[in-house]
Give the backbone structure.
Amino acid sequence: MKIVGISACTSGIAHTYIAKEKLIKAGTEAGHQVRIETQGTIGIEDELTVQEIKEADLVIIAADIKISGRERFKGKKVVEIPTNLAIKAPKQLYKKLESELQRGV
Amino acid sequence: MWKKIWRKMELKKHALTAISYMLPLVVAAGLLIAIGNLAGGSVITNYKEPFSVASALLSLGVLGMGLLAPVIAGAIAYSIADRPGIAPGLLMGLIANSIGAGFLGGMLGGFIVGYFVLFLRKHLKVPRWAEGLMPMMIIPLVSSVVIGLLMYFVIGVPIVWATEGMTSFLNSMQGSMRFVFGAILGGMAAFDFGGPVNKVASLFADGLLLQGVKEPEAVKILASMVPPFGVTISWLLSLAFRKKKYTKEEEDNIKIALPMGVCMITEGVIPIAAVDLLRVVAACTFGAAIGGGLSMMWGVASPVPSGGMFIVPAMNHPLLFTLALLIGSLITGIILFLWKKEPTKEEEKLSDKDFEEEFDLSDIKISQ
């Protein structure tokens, strides 16, 4: 699957980036293509392109706070989780998402 | 059904959004005040007379602190209602400031005005020609008038009481009472390594900081650093006494957890705690409670809410803080060293970098 996502945590200096690493690592291991945009206190980095969003099968928003640019994902399949989950159980997350998608949500 | 509405309101997300916007401001303002004070400045009351650089820095910090309630209220309202929430939110924060309802008042005002703006956006219908006026005039004006008056005459009153009561209670605490308070706060802040219990303690400390009560903030900072430092000490002890307590994998994790700890990020300890939950949590909570109690009792105060070892010089008693931190970490370290069992061969093998604790994922829904 092609997956895009956003990570953003409260202090915006640590968890945002750990969540990104974990999501990419576990996702790649599960055979997905994962691109994550970070919205830390420094601002948006690795911004998702229109093309990437258009091609994505699923959007993962791993955020504890309000993210900017949500309207970009209108009409896409979106799953929202706290950063904590992406950090502590990324593999379980992907398994769960795969089975949810298979059930034809 | 109430549960559903409660969840939909996402109170926590809005509060955290506000905290995330507030943090850089409070760190900058807190450090400015600390530097200005150290350099011998005083708050400028009359700008027509000459003033020193130190006084300018101090005054800027004080101005920055005054922005906190407006920024919190504005950010909460923005998180709830998007851009139209910002202007009325800022105003509610200013009201909270001027009637003395501070941080709590700002949060409450932000929530109420945010939901009110959201309600207006959804349900207030105007003729086509007036649509342009909605975001520019109608929403800001109507919400400021309605919620503003509510803040001034109704909601503000009990909040001012509560704020004053809590502040004077905390300031009047003496001796052993202070120790107990610091111990509870410190234990809570360390208990789940940056999880929900920690966030409650930390919100509480941040709130008090804005009321001018700075001691709980020092406890919070201390308690966030005790777990990584304590675990590191227990590992060093195990090296010194040649008693193996950690697997190779855990040792690597400790080497990462320590520098994270210096920056006040507790979460580096999670992989170590996950393998031996009870012992690590108990030792860290106990050490942080003692350290927090001492820090509170000695009156250590921090004007800055975050930044780890780097902001220790800005505290009122840097040495006492370091001492309390050291005692707490040593206690954690010694308890862990004595209590932890030598890892078995299997654990050595099993210690897997990709370890995940079981998570309840039943709530996860994909929406379209």
Q: What stands out?
A: The mean pLDDT of chain A is 92. The helical segments of chain A are 15-29, 50-55, 83-88, 90-102. Chain A has one domain: 2-102. Strands of chain A lie at 2-8, 33-40, 43-45, 58-63, 78-81.
